[in-house]
Each structure stands twice: as structure tokens, then as C-alpha cells.
Amino acid sequence: MKYSIEIGKIVEGALKHDQVKVLNYTRQLIAKLEEDKEERAVNKFTKLLTMQQESTLSAMGTTNNNNIPVDAESRTTLADVIYPNENNIEVVLSQSNLDKLNSFILSYKNSDTLNSLGLGGSNTLLLYGPPGCGKTKCAYLIAKELKLPLIVARLDSLISSYLGTTAKNIRTLFEFVQKTPCVLFLDEFDAIAKARDDSNELGELKRVVNSLLQNVDAMSSDSLLLAATNHENLLDSAVWRRFNYKLEIELPDIEAIYKMISLFTNNNSIFTHKDKREMATSFVGLSGADIEEIVKKAMRNSVIYGYALSKTSIYDELFIFMKILPQNCKDEREIQRKKAKFLRNRDDKVFSYAVIANILGISKTSVSKLIVEEEVV
Fold it and tell me: What is the pLDDT along the chain (377 residues), one digit of tens a residue?
């Protein structure tokens, strides 16, 4: 049945006398009806809402006046909210990662059809992989594609030093997100989901995992839960099983890196297609965050020191980042030799002697001599 998620939540809220949930999901239903141009239904539900007192809680995404739950002791909010109109994230992923992410998004978008066939949709996704590869940005992308607010849990508020408070905060946060259409995102997930057989962990943290499991189990199938970790091997096996989708966000491939260079340099016209292909080859093995740091640093330096941005300045930042230059080395030839060999070892087909010569600003003959030289011991 179409709109089954919203109708189910409205009925659930009505049966529990939860006016907040009823109002929020009614607004979500109206938004979907508007997209489908169901004007009569839109007018009917809008009229019903108008009859309610203006003091009732507005739907997330239409206003920013939501009562985010707080930690009882510190009074700090348990989450930050990124509304659809504030979510302008741009994410570059490998085609493989993008396909898997789209599969999850499509599953949720087609949950009405899946539910009608008794198949059920997927509403939990665990993102894991090396740091800086875009796991957090993926959560933003999912919320953006679904046009839903993103509720980002604040671990500094969620985790408390008081006995039992962390578990209570988790329950409070889960109860809050089930009252309104949104995506709950738990970053650095291993902080609250570590394996309970870890002898180094205190009993309190093991109770936190039990509380987390209970709340995930009690969560409605219509609610969306995303989590991300750099240390999937630390997660409790029971927590791992609770996620319908598990997606490893890997280091970007060369095609994704090429797009990142365009994105981070604002499609600067000084770089040709060939320039960007070469740079992408040299960046293979780095995370998206590393690549952004290198490119942005080169761009900042060009502004600060008043010189034109060039591919050479970006390569210079790469050499520094990769720590290939001898410390306190004053020998210019030794420095050039290190740079030449580094590029050549990246891909000798891409980094020919002529290409390396152009990057380093020396002759092709000089590059040839540098490449065959033995390292100075």
C-alpha cells in the first residue's frame, strides 16, 4: 500500500496518544502527496492540521524549533539536527560504493511496494572502512536523497560518567527519532557498540551495548538508523547482526579521485583532463580526506604567498604529505631524485620521463639520469 510508512506511524501515534508523532508524520504524508500531485488529499490533510493549535510541534524539516532531548546532568543536547534545506553535501564515491548506497536508498524509497509483497524494506545500514573515506558524508547523502532531516548523535553528550545515564540517553534519543520522519546517524559507533567479551571494558559499557540492542530491536521498521565505524572488528557480533545492510566504504578508485580533484579545485580550468588523470594516479591509495587536505593546502598556499596555483604546487604538497623528502636535506639533486623516483614508481606508463620533467621543471635527460641513480646512503 502506498504511503504505508506514514499511515502506519500516524495510526501508531494515535493509538499511543502521541500527538507529536501524529502531526509530524501527517506533514510527511502531505509532502509525499504534494510530490504525487494529489491535490484533494493535500487540501484535506492540510485543513485538518490547520485546525490544531499553533503550539503543537511542527514537522522536522519545515521548522527548526524541535525539542531535541538533552542529557539530564549536563543539559547538553544528545544530537545535532541537519535539516534538508541545510544539507548541501557533495559526495564522491567509487562506482561500486555508490551502487551499494543507491541500493539501500531505493530499498527505502520502495518500502511500500516491498511491504505489500511481504518482503520488508531495509532500514538499518552500517558503514565501515578506513578513516577519511566518506562514511559520514554518506549519511548526509542518504538523508539528502530521502529529503529527511539527519539526526547526528553527539557522543560527548550521549556517553555519561554517571552509572546508567548512557543507557538512558540512548533510549531517550531512540524514542525521540521515532516521533518524526528522520535519519538517525551514530558516528564512531564502536564507542557504544564494542564487543561484550572485551575484558578491557567496564561492566557499564557492556550494559550500554545491551541497551543499544534493545532499542534497535524496539525500533519501528519504518525508522531509519545509520551507523559508521573505522573499527568494525571491535563491534559486538549481536550489534553487527542487527543491520540489514553493511557497506564497506573503501579507498577511492582512480575514477573517484579524478572527480574529487575537480570538486576540490572548483573545476579550475588550468588543469587539463590529462593533468587530472596524472594527479589521480599519484593519489591512489589515499583517502578522500587526505586528497582534500593536499589539494586545499596547495590552494591556500597559492593565495597566502601570492603565486598561481599549478599542478607542480599540488605535487609538492603530495611529496610533503607522503614524507618522501629527506629531513633537513639541502641537496637539490637528492630532492629531485626522490620526487622523480616516487612518481615513476606510481605508474611508469603514466609518469614517463617527459611527464616527470614537466612536473619538476627539469629536462627529460636529467630525469633519466635521476631515475637510474643509486640512493645516497
Answer: 677 777 777 777 777 767 777 777 777 777 877 777 777 777 777 777 776 644 444 444 444 445 788 887 888 899 999 988 888 888 898 888 899 899 999 988 887 787 777 776 788 999 999 999 999 999 999 999 998 999 999 988 888 877 688 989 999 999 998 888 889 999 999 988 888 775 555 567 788 899 999 999 988 777 899 999 999 999 989 999 999 899 999 999 999 999 999 999 988 888 999 999 999 999 999 999 999 999 999 999 999 999 999 999 999 999 999 999 888 888 899 999 999 999 999 999 999 999 999 999 999 999 999 998 755 44
Residues 84 and 157 in one domain: yes
Question: How distant, in Å, are the alpha carbons of 87, 165, 252 from that of 141?
Answer: 8, 31, 17
CA angle 366, 368, 370 (to 5 degrees): 70
Question: DSSP assignment of 97-116, as one string?
Answer: HHHHHHHHHHHHHTHHHHHH
Query: Structurally, how many domains does the chain consist of?
Result: 4
What domain range is 41 assigned to?
A: 1-59
Domain boundary among 14, 34, 59: 59
Side-by-side strand order, sheet with 224-229: 79-82, 150-153, 183-186, 224-229, 124-128, 245-248
Does pTM top 0.70 for this prediction?
yes
- In the chain, what are the helix, strand and coil shares in percent, each to the nearest 5? 55, 10, 35
Residue 317's contacts (CB-CB under 8 Å, 6 or more residues apart) are: 294, 295, 297, 298, 301
Asked whether residue 269 falls in the same domain as residue 316, the answer is yes
Cα 56 vs. chain centroid, distance in angstroms?
Answer: 32
Domain end, chosen from 293, 323, 353, is at 323
What lies within 8 Å, CB to CB, of 192 at 6+ separation is 155, 158, 159, 166, 170, 186, 205, 208, 209, 212
String of b and e for 160-171 (b: at least 16 CB within 10 Å)? beeeebbbebbb
